[in-house]
Write a structure and sequence with these properties.
This protein is α+β, with helices and mostly antiparallel strands. 17% of the residues lie in helices and 31% in strands. It is built from four helices and eleven strands. β2 and β3 form a beta hairpin. The longest helix is centred in the first third of the chain and has 12 residues.
């Protein structure tokens, strides 16, 4: 299950989600909404790709064909989610056992990110390889949860990015750490 929250600094004078702009791209898996922040429009996208490789591959292929996602080139965009695959096994995983991480659909996902002209915020901030893991297990740590931004968001000020195990408490049943940006 994916849970996404977008926090915007309270120094913004006006934040107005445009409910009429909600676009379900993959039912139960991907949604986009436009938000006006201080009179400028931003696109927020939340994605939860299947943990099962078969459906995940089909979901990524559908995203590659989605015309609404091509607007990330001109509209300042933030996209976050649980992608259940990594772009770069060497940089985004750390094996703790004998079993290597399966690369299933990582290259397909990377092609989508390139086509949509999105950038991994972790890499934008130069946080380095083998850091920022959001799923920790006894055999491997992975950076399955990420935040991407479009080139039109270069003016964003990134203050902090990384997993935040203390951000939420209570009964949030997840094997992933929340990601804070």
């Amino acid at each position: 299950m994916s849970r996404v929250a977008v926090a915007i600094r309270n120094s913004c004078s006006r934040v107005a989600p445009r409910v009429d702009s909600v676009h379900v791209i993959l039912k139960g898996r991907c949604i986009a909404i436009d938000v006006d922040i201080d009179e400028k429009q931003y696109r927020m996208i939340s994605i939860y790709l299947s943990a099962n490789p078969g459906p995940r591959g089909a979901q990524i292929k559908k995203l590659l064909q989605e015309p609404a996602l091509s607007q990330t080139i001109t509209t300042p965009t933030l996209m976050g989610g649980d992608f259940n695959c990594v772009e770069n096994v060497e940089a985004d995983t750390e094996g703790l056992g004998a079993t290597p991480y399966a690369k299933t659909h990582g290259s397909t996902w990377k092609a989508f990110v390139k086509r949509a002209r999105l950038r991994d915020a972790h890499r934008t901030m130069r946080l380095g390889p083998r850091t920022g893991y959001t799923r920790l297990s006894h055999t491997i740590h992975t950076r399955l949860d990420r935040i991407y931004h479009g080139t039109a968001t270069d003016s964003f000020q990134w203050h902090k990015l990384g997993p935040s195990p203390d951000l939420f408490s209570g009964n949030a049943a997840s094997d992933h750490l929340p990601l804070l940006a």
